[in-house]
Each structure stands twice: as structure tokens, then as C-alpha cells.
Amino acid sequence: MSESSASALPPGRPGRQPFSHPENLSLDSSCFSSPPVNFLQELPSYRSIARKRTTIPTREKQSGTLLKPTDSYSSQLEGGITENLNSQSIRKYALNISEKRRLRNIQETQMKYLSEWDQWKRYSSKSWKRFIGKAREMTTHLELWRDDIRSIEGKFGTGIQSYFSFLRFLVLLNLVIFLIIFMLVLLPVLLTKYNITNSTFVLIPSKDTDVQCTVYPISSSGLIYFYSYIIDLLSGTGFLEETCLFYGHYTIDGVKFQNFTYDLPLAYLLSTIAYLALSLLWIVKRSVEGFKINLIRSEEHFQSYCNKIFAGWDFCITNRSMADLKHSSLRYELRADLEEERIRQKIAERTSEETIRIYSLRLFLNCIVLAVLAACFYAIYRATIFSQEHMKKEIDKMVFGENLLILYLPSIVITLANFITPMIFAKIIHYEDYSPGFEIRLTILRCVFMRLATICVLVFTLGSKITSCDNYSCELCGYNQKLYPCWETQVGQEMYKLMIFDLIIILAVTLFVDFPRKLLVTYCSSWKLVQCWGQQEFAIPDNVLGIVYGQTICWIGAFFSPLLPAIATLKLIIIFYVKEISLLYTCRPSPRQFRASNSNFFFLLVLLIGLCLAIIPLTISMARVPSSKACGPFTNFNTTWEVVPKTVSTFPRSLQSLVHGITSEAFAVPFFMIICLIMFYFIALAGAHKRVVVQLREQLSLESRDKRYLIQKLTEAQRDMKNRLDWQ
């Protein structure tokens, strides 16, 4: 302590004198005034780097022997921030308020030395960012079901909230799909039909087609029973078959306006391609964030327990019962992790005889799973064949129930298969000796394949019936014109029936199963049967598979029934309110909860699988199956895709050469090679980023060891100092 500072002490209060003794000064010099490099070279991080560098003898020595441990992270961060002040916002940096204010002053000082043009660009950029932020803040108040979803998030956590957010996303997706089809297909037809604009229909020109192929018998208008309209409404036949709901209504070649002619066949095809491409891009864009989070978490095997204990709590929960449920969920996850660790240890200790036995058992059980799937697919095939062969009977020859059963027989069989097979899969998986997490994923994967494959089986069964003839040749029309004069409309009717029946089943289960079950659990809880049955769980995977199943139906059926996306939008809105009421009053959340990030990525992955399965039958029907000659805008084309070459032939010569060049093999092969090179580049870049992440994790680990080492040395120094003072 200096003399001036010592004289500044108040009188009567002696100053502390330990630093005035020469012994203490020697202690301080020995502990803290020694060369810092010698002391810092004892850090664990420095020793680790030294060991790594000594293992590479061919590397030349750098200027300054090794990486200096005195280069602190904060100084590097500050240097990086000051360099990027011109392009980055200070809000993005994790600094305290005083540091941000200091950086703000530096930024304002730098602004004074810029030109007027640069200052204007800087101010305009800030104003634009501020405007975008305010606009985004205002649009959040316009979100559909914003308050409802936030209330669900507060009561039941982010896992169930992610299901309702996913449902809202599908509502918006179907609404956009409907708007695309409405603007490209339906709007020109309605404007001309009701004389809103000065336009006329362009009829399809006659072609050398056999008259027998152009026959499209309309339903007989004889005696109409009172229930006929109900059957028509539920099945899409009768009066609905002639409306704009189905493909057969658009039997025109175009709409002629004053200055141009609107090509309806091309617009019809482009609308299908547009909504499929939009769905693909939208799903991929939303799934990227969840994929990144899952990719990062997949690397954190050693931090699994720490993540669950220190970062596993959902702070959005405000309900006491949901808090208890979250506690039990975390306990379940820890038990599941311990069980998986036990199974991994058990696998490592297996003998060769046990390994052969378990793999033989799994092979046998997977054969049973395949047999169950094959039986379901065959039942759907037979039900579809039976329904298609008997649905052409006159209505007056069968009673109301029989007629409705024949029409809905494929839908009933598909629903029963989707209801029974998950229970069978859940029983089989217990004998396969998998870890709990893998059991859930494998069961969900089997259920996804079952639900989505049933739709494909139905579509391909219809396709086989359309393109095959029993007693006469199909060479005349290219398809079974006798049974399917307008096969596109009839496929659309099947998709329409699946959509309506799925909604009926959801409403019926909620009203006649969940609500009575809740009443029994509430008022008859002493009964042993009711105790075994228990309250209905709100299982997120099952509900997600249900709406993905409906969305796949919508993607396939939108080509054959242009208004099906509008029906799907209304259906999803009804499902939202039904599921919300069911969650609040009749169901309890499942003890196996999903994280929001994992849930969103899983939902979108299943939805992407459904989209891929929907594209396959649509592509085959548009490119390979002959189009109907009695209805629709493609009556003069052998297939739907032939409208594209015809349109290209109307282009100028240079543009035709460009299109033909792009679609030729001479362009496709180099393009494919370039895409492969770009893909390999990004794979290599991802590998480099992965190595950087590993190095950063090692650096974080070394920094924690450095801190622990420094604290230990500081504690020892303080202890030595205290001991010397006590001796004195």
C-alpha cells in the first residue's frame, strides 16, 4: 500500500498492514509475480495441445512456440464483434447491458467517419429491420388458434402443443392448395358459367374416337327414395357426381376471353404439379430446423443424463397435474435410459447361442408382422373388388343399409385394419427384446407403413380394375369403359368416401367411446373392469398418424376431386375443436411425452413419407393410365401428360429447341454429374463442420478443466497466505 493511500485512511482506524511486510511481498511475488508463461503452461488445456503437437513430428514450428493460453475467449469475441458491427446487430450477442452500451457507443462513433451514402444505407437497413420486426410481431396476433394453442401449451406442455400446431399447419396447407386449384381451374369456369366476364367455353374438338368410348350414362332420375340424397351426400354419387366437386364436370377444352384463350387442360395439370411441389418445399423447409436439433442431440450421448436433469423441465407448464405428469415423464425417461443401458450391456454379454436364438425369434415375429400386413392388404383388395362389382346395381334392388355398406366396404375394411394392427404390433414388439426407445420407433414405423400402404393398395386395386377387362378387349378405349366410363370421377368418389368416413369415425369414437369411458372412470371408479380399462390417453403418435392418413388421401384425391382440399380444410378445423374438447374433458396425456422439437421433426417426417406415397399413384395415373374419353379436360389425349408436349409444340422454334435440349440425355447426364459433385461438396463441408463441432466440444471441456485447475491453485495460494499470516 502506498503512503498516500495509507495517509488517506481515517484517523483512529488502523490500516491493514500485511502487504507492508517484506515476507508477504516475497510471497506475493512468488505466487503471482512469477513469469506467467511458466505458470499458464501448467494448465490442462496447454498440456493437451502440447501432447497433440508432439505426436506430429513433421509439422513445422510456428512463430511463438505453442498456442498461447493467455489469449482469452472474451478478447477474441470482442474483436470479432467490433469487426462485425457494420453487418450484425448487437442484440444477437450474449453480452451484458454495459458491454452492449459500450459497443453501441463504438458503433455510433464509427458512423461519424462514414460517408453520407454509407450512413443512409446503415440507417435504412436499421429502419427496414425494425419494420420487419414490428410486422412479424403484429402477424403473431393474427395466427389461427393462437390463444387456444397457448392455453394447451400452458396446461399440457410443448409435446401436445406441437400436435395442435401441426394440425394448424395442415389447415393452412390445405387452404393454400385449395386456393391454387380454385384460381387455376375453378375460377375461370365459374366466371364463364355465370356470365361474370365476357368469355365463352371452348368445347373439346371431336376426334376419331369410337362412339362407345364417349358414352357416359347419367344416373337414372326415376323414383327417388328419401334416403337417396343421404347416400349421394356420403358417397359422392347422384347429384354430387355432376357438380364441380369431381373431375368429370370439367369437360371443356378452355375458356376464351377477349384477348386470349385459357388452356384448361394445361392449367388442370399445372395445378396438380404446383400443389405437390408447394407441399414438398413447405414440409422440407419446416423440417430443416427439427432435423438440425435432432442431429445435434444425436451426438450428445454422454450428456443425455445432464440434459434430462438440468434442462429437461418444460417451463411452459402452469398446471399442477401436468407438472406432476412431467415429473413422472422425466422419471420414465431416466428409467428408459437405464433400461437401454442395461440392454446394451446385456447385448454385449450375450453368447453366440443366445444371439442366434433372439435373431431367430425376431425373424419369426417379423414373418408374423408381414403375414398380418399381407392379410390386411388382401382383405382391402377383396373388399374393393366386391364393392366395385356390386355398386352398379340399381338402388331400388337393395335396402338403405345394404347399399351404404356396399359403398363404404373398402373404407370400413381400411378402418378396421388401422384399428386392429397397432394392437397386434404392440403385443409382438414385447417379445423381440428391443430397447424401450427402439420399441416405440419400430411400432410407429410399422403403423405408418400400415396406414399409408392401405391407401396405395386401394388405389392400385382400382387401377387394376380400370385397366383390365373380363369379357371383352380393352384395346378400343384403353381401359374398362363399361365399368368405368369416367374412371377419374370414380377414383375421386373413393377418396371422397375415405375422407368422409374418416371424419365420421373420429366423431363417433369421441362421442360414443371417449365420453362414456370418462363417465365410467369418474362415477364408477370402484369397478375392477373400469379400473383395468382406465381413462383414455391422448396418444400423440396415433393422433398424428390419423391426420397424416387424411392428408395423404387429400393429396391423392385432389387431382380427381378438385374441391377435396376445401373439404379437408373443414374436416381439420372440426378435428381441432373435437380433439381440444376431448383433451380437456375426456382424455389424459400419455405418460410417454414427446419433446416439441422431436415431435415436430417426427410429424413432418411422417408427412413427407405420406407425400412421397401420394406422388407415386398420381404419377402413374397421369403418365401411364389412358385418360377417360367420356369426361374431363383430357378426352382428346391418350394420357394426361400428353398436354405438355402439345403445349411445347406451340412454342417458337428457339424455345422448343431449348426445352428439348433441357429434357434430353445430353443435358441430363452432365446435370446429374454436377449435382453429384455439389452433393459431395456439401457432404465434405458437413464433415468439416462436424470435426469443428468436436473440436469446440473438446475446447469447452478443456476450459472447464482449466477453470477447475485455476480455482484449485488460487485456493492453495490463499491457504498458504493465510498460514503465513497466522505464523506471523
TrEMBL record:
<dbReference type="InterPro" id="IPR012496">
    <property type="entry name" value="TMC_dom"/>
</dbReference>
<feature type="transmembrane region" description="Helical">
    <location>
        <begin position="266"/>
        <end position="284"/>
    </location>
</feature>
<feature type="transmembrane region" description="Helical">
    <location>
        <begin position="405"/>
        <end position="426"/>
    </location>
</feature>
<dbReference type="InterPro" id="IPR038900">
    <property type="entry name" value="TMC"/>
</dbReference>
<feature type="transmembrane region" description="Helical">
    <location>
        <begin position="555"/>
        <end position="578"/>
    </location>
</feature>
<comment type="similarity">
    <text>Belongs to the TMC family.</text>
</comment>
<feature type="transmembrane region" description="Helical">
    <location>
        <begin position="667"/>
        <end position="688"/>
    </location>
</feature>
<feature type="region of interest" description="Disordered">
    <location>
        <begin position="1"/>
        <end position="27"/>
    </location>
</feature>
<feature type="region of interest" description="Disordered">
    <location>
        <begin position="52"/>
        <end position="73"/>
    </location>
</feature>
<feature type="transmembrane region" description="Helical">
    <location>
        <begin position="363"/>
        <end position="385"/>
    </location>
</feature>
<feature type="transmembrane region" description="Helical">
    <location>
        <begin position="599"/>
        <end position="620"/>
    </location>
</feature>
<keyword id="KW-0472">Membrane</keyword>
<feature type="domain" description="TMC">
    <location>
        <begin position="486"/>
        <end position="597"/>
    </location>
</feature>
<feature type="transmembrane region" description="Helical">
    <location>
        <begin position="169"/>
        <end position="191"/>
    </location>
</feature>
<keyword id="KW-0812">Transmembrane</keyword>
<dbReference type="Pfam" id="PF07810">
    <property type="entry name" value="TMC"/>
</dbReference>
<keyword id="KW-1133">Transmembrane helix</keyword>
<feature type="transmembrane region" description="Helical">
    <location>
        <begin position="495"/>
        <end position="513"/>
    </location>
</feature>
<protein>
    <recommendedName>
        <fullName>Transmembrane channel-like protein</fullName>
    </recommendedName>
</protein>
